[in-house]
# Entry
Amino acid sequence: MYQVVVSNKAEKILSKLPSSVYSRMASALKNLSANPRPAGCKKLKGRNAWRIRVGDYRAIYEIQDDILLVVVIMLGHRRDI
# Structure
């Protein structure tokens, strides 16, 4: 199991999401601990980061396989990320 860490910036954005989106995003982030590369995730070009989609929102995160850590860097609506 991977440990999922949410950055301060991402935590602040997460707390401001509408409640329906918040619950779905929180669930998706929690599921990253079991599978950090779920179906539908994309590797980002130019940086060592991944992206998952939750409705119209995106979560960008880095995976550190050597220490089993997933760091959520940014969250937001798809038009902003």
User: Anything to note?
Assistant: The chain has two helices and five strands. The first strand starts at residue 3 and ends at 6. Helices lie at 8-15, 19-31. The radius of gyration is 12 Å.
